[in-house]
Amino acid sequence: MRRPDAVVIPEAVLDEDGLAVDATQALAAIEIVSPSNPSNDYDAKPADYPAMGIPLCLIVDPRTGTIEVHSDPCKGRYAQKEPYIFGDAVPFGVWTVETGEFRRYGREG
Questions:
Q1: Is the dihedral of CA 23, 68, 87, 101 positive or negative?
Q2: CB–CB of 73/54 below 8 Å?
Q3: What SUPFAM superfamilies does the annotation carry (predicted)?
Q4: Tens digits of per-residue pLDDT, 83-95?
Q5: Residues whose CB falls within 8 Å of the CB of residue 14, separated by 6 or more in sequence, listed in order
Q6: Between β-strands 28-32 and 77-85, what pairing exists: parallel, antiparallel or unpaired?
Q7: Could you identify which of 6, 9, 54, 61 might form a hypothetical disulfide with 33, taking C-beta atoms 3.0 to 4.6 angstroms apart as the criterion?
Q8: What pLDDT, in 10s, does the model give residues 8-56?
Q9: What is the 3-state secondary structure (H, E, C) of 20-45?
Q10: Using an 8 Å Cβ cutoff, are 77 and 54 in contact?
Q11: SS3 breakdown of the chain: % helix, strand, coil, rounded to 5?
């Protein structure tokens, strides 16, 4: 069981009973890289999410100002990984994530 920092789900899922969401209903998972355990966000979670049936994963790293979009689950892993930097308009499935206001850890402005 994994708990993403944020998850994109269809709104109708919120009307279902229970405290958890079946991972196969998730459209995307979003991770903000932890300064204390970055390997969990870069290695473990992107290995687990495609195996759970989550089609997209966005990893935002405020330590370095970088972003990764993982997509195309195939045989339990993501087949595609696209790199971006803070300030890019990041294509993420059917969405575009505007990152111009993203902030880095320990940085002002």
A1: positive
A2: yes
A3: Restriction endonuclease-like
A4: 999 999 999 999 9
A5: none
A6: unpaired
A7: 61
A8: 999 888 777 777 778 888 999 999 999 999 999 999 999 999 999 999 9
A9: CCCHHHCCEEEEECCCCCHHHHHHHH
A10: no
A11: 20, 35, 45
Contact 56, 78 (CB under 8 A): no
CA neighbor of 65 nearest in space, from 6, 108, 105: 105
What's the CA gap between 19 and 63, in Å, rounded?
Answer: 32
Picking from 69, 35, 65, 39, the residue whose alpha carbon sits closest to that of residue 54 is: 69
For the record, the structure tokens of 30 come out as 């979003």
Which three-class secondary structure state does DSSP give residue 9? coil
Above 70 in pLDDT, residue 60? yes
pTM of the prediction?
Answer: 0.89
pLDDT of residue 17: 76
Rounded Cα distance, 8 and 17, in Å: 18
Q: Evaluate whether 92 touches 63 at the Cβ level (below 8 Å).
A: no
The DSSP call for residue 3 is -
Residue 107 pLDDT = 63
